[in-house]
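Anyone up for a design puzzle?
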């Protein structure tokens, strides 16, 4: 290790953010362990190995126990501090957890091997970091407070400096600048780092994605301005939506006062190993992970762009994606300029898409936007548009407190719910992160039925041919008297009585044209065989999607504005309200039905 105070210290992210950014978080533990001895010998400041989306990917796709991955890495990397990324009160899940869950999660992560916890909140609402930061300190580990970097009229240098100071007051051992989107430019970085280094006594770290091609330059300006800690990724998984390459940054500072002292030849050997590993996961590569300067134009992060492109494709509206990119900054302004990172990127992106697709801004408002406007995610960085807030939530009171204050302790309840399927507290925490998925995982593990997803070979049809994107729907169909379980992806376009769909049969995607039966097309106007809405009492949707829940039954009386259906479109749920009061005369949908705009779903008279 280099004892020089001006030396740049490197955190390599190849085992976490590198593969999360480039191959959809799919690297398996079996591909990490063989190279750990060499990684451990380098002398990195730290290796980022856990957290972010890796926990989800382990349980959902790889059928690995994420806690066991951490234990194996800890054992294989005895000399290097291990680092994780934690979403504050959301931990590694997708909701706010009660404080006792946060405390136990941090304690178990520390016991299993994490040394450095990078803790952030999507809104930079520090109340959502408090409990996690305290828990890290209580475990005796390094608490790194994070600033999510974004660009807006309210995100000034003064605001970031104030945030850094408050993080230090909370006990932060260091401050990380997290530029998840690649928004930082070299000169903006220089100014920001100089301001932070001048304001706090703890080290400042820079985590900058290379999406727009500027991160290496930004890191150099950061170092010149007094930053001594940078995140880089082994060159085999560097560049594009990942990070500047470790080898390049090590070479850049060689022979200067900032020399990292790391061995380039040893780093190259590690790169040779990971280049081979990357080939195995070729099916998960995407054109959206390449360098793309658009984020400097629209402030839309790369990952969000690819998600939106997929969602617009599902809606048969890819041609209007530019309108969505133009709408995103307006929605963001309406919502008080949240930084765009999980989950705010999905919330803003989907609402912007709805505003474009329905032809009227906020005609349809997702439940997530409502929750956001009720204060469910914490305090937005700036004031939200009150008119839109009232349109979304009516006279419901806005909760200005810390969201987790509404939550009662839940560890005991969770332990009881999962029962014998949990062999230890780690299992309870896995279940806490993903209730359905976690339970399935633990059940299959008990029954010896864990099967990791197949890695499609790059030459196989499912990897090489364009297949409709989206979550498949499973059906059982009978063909010539034999039953087949099939998965259908894509909406299919209705041409008269014919429906074109994509079937996956025995892993082979096939485009199939269905000839619909007579009774199916009777009265058909929309795609689902329902009549066209023509009266105020005809409840319909403005977006194609699925029915999540039918909230009323025939004979119920409903008031004007009452929610009668919950639909799901673009992975977000939306309530559909009755436009008139009256009695429910007929319900034409059930949970799980696919619906298209303009169809009569419920009749009220
Ligand atoms: Mn990152």
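Challenge accepted. My sequence:
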């Amino acid at each position: 290790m280099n004892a020089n105070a001006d030396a740049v210290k490197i955190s390599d992210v190849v085992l976490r953010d590198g593969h999360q950014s480039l191959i959809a978080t799919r690297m398996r533990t079996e591909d990490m362990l063989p190279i750990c001895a060499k990684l451990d010998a380098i002398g990195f400041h730290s290796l980022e190995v856990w957290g972010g989306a890796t926990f989800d990917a382990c349980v959902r796709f790889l059928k690995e126990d994420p806690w066991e991955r951490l234990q194996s890495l800890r054992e294989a990397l005895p000399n290097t501090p291990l680092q994780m990324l934690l979403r504050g009160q959301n931990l590694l899940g997708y909701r706010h957890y009660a404080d006792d869950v946060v405390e136990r999660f941090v304690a178990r992560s520390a016991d299993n091997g994490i040394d450095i916890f990078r803790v952030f909140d999507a809104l930079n609402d520090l109340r959502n970091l408090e409990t996690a930061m305290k828990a890290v300190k209580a475990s005796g580990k390094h608490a790194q407070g994070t600033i999510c970097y974004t660009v807006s009229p309210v995100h000034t240098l003064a605001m970031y400096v104030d945030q850094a100071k408050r993080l230090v007051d909370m006990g932060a051992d260091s401050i990380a600048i997290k530029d998840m989107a690649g928004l930082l430019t070299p000169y903006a970085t220089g100014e920001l780092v100089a301001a932070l280094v001048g304001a706090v006594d703890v080290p400042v770290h820079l985590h900058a994605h290379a999406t727009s091609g500027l991160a290496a330059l930004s890191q150099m300006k950061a170092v010149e301005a007094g930053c001594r800690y940078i995140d880089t990724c082994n060159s085999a998984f560097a560049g594009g939506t990942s990070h500047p390459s470790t080898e390049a940054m090590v070479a850049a500072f060689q022979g200067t006062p900032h020399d990292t002292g790391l061995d380039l030849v040893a780093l190259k050997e590690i790169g040779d190993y990971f280049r081979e590993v990357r080939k195995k996961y070729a099916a998960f590569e995407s054109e959206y992970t390449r360098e793309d300067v658009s984020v400097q134009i629209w402030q839309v992060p790369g990952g969000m762009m690819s998600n939106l492109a997929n969602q617009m494709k599902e809606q048969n509206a890819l041609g209007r994606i530019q309108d969505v990119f133009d709408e995103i900054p307006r929605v963001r302004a309406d919502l008080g300029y949240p930084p765009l990172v999980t989950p705010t990127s999905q919330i803003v992106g989907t609402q912007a898409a709805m505003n474009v697709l329905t032809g009227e801004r906020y005609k349809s408002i997702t439940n997530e936007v409502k929750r956001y406007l009720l204060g469910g995610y914490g305090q937005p960085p700036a004031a939200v548009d009150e008119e839109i807030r009232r349109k979304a939530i009516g006279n419901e009171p806005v909760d200005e407190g810390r969201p987790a204050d509404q939550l009662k302790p839940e560890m005991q309840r969770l332990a009881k719910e999962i029962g014998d399927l949990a062999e230890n507290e780690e299992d309870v925490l896995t279940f806490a992160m993903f209730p359905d998925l976690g339970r399935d995982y633990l059940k299959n593990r008990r029954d010896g039925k864990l099967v990791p997803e197949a890695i499609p070979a790059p030459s196989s049809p499912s990897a090489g041919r364009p297949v409709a994107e989206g979550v498949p729907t499973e059906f059982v169909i009978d063909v010539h008297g034999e039953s087949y379980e099939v998965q259908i992806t894509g909406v299919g376009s209705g041409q008269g009585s014919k429906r074109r769909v994509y079937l996956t049969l025995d892993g082979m995607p096939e485009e199939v044209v269905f000839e619909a039966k007579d009774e199916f097309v009777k009265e058909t106007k929309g795609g689902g065989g329902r009549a066209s809405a023509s009266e105020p009492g005809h409840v319909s949707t403005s977006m194609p999607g699925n029915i999540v829940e039918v909230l009323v039954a025939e004979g119920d009386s409903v008031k004007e504005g009452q929610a009668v259906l919950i639909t799901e479109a673009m992975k977000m749920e939306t309530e559909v309200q009755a436009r008139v009061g009256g009695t429910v005369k007929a319900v034409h949908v059930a949970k799980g039905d696919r619906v298209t705009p303009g169809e009569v779903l419920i009749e009220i008279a």
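A detail worth pointing out: Confidence is low (pLDDT under 50) at residues 459-527.
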